[in-house]
Design a protein that fits this description.
Blueprint: H1 4-18, H2 27-45, H3 50-54, H4 58-81, H5 86-100
Helix pairs in contact: 2-4
């Protein structure tokens, strides 16, 4: 049985290959596309109050899911290009964050 991560890798690769998009998927273009998609995430929240932003409608949540997925796919493709596993990188970064921002020294707002 294929893991979800392996299924995603295979699906993304097949999708791009079938469309012959490889020539467009260098790190520079992927980074620019990722930022554009991240801006679309921001756009969903742009004019909402904090309360509205925490209580999205089902349609807004579906739109958010699509834009987060687009951003994630581009981010994943950049990581893959450089052999960076995003889960491993995120876990390593959280360890660094724990040292940089120890809970004992955390300030309360």
């Amino acid at each position: 049985m294929m893991s979800r991560r392996a299924e995603l890798d295979k699906t993304i690769a097949r999708f791009a290959r079938e469309r012959k998009w490889g020539k467009y998927h260098g790190p520079k273009n992927l980074a620019m596309a990722m930022v554009k998609e991240a801006a679309e995430v921001v756009e969903i929240f742009q004019w909402l109050t904090p309360a509205q932003a925490r209580a999205l409608t089902p349609a807004q949540r579906a739109h958010l899911a699509d834009e987060l997925a687009d951003t994630f796919i581009y981010l994943k493709k950049i990581g893959d290009h450089f052999g960076i596993d995003l889960v491993d990188a995120a876990l390593a970064k959280m360890k660094k964050n724990a040292l940089k921002y120890p809970a004992a020294r955390s300030t309360r707002l």
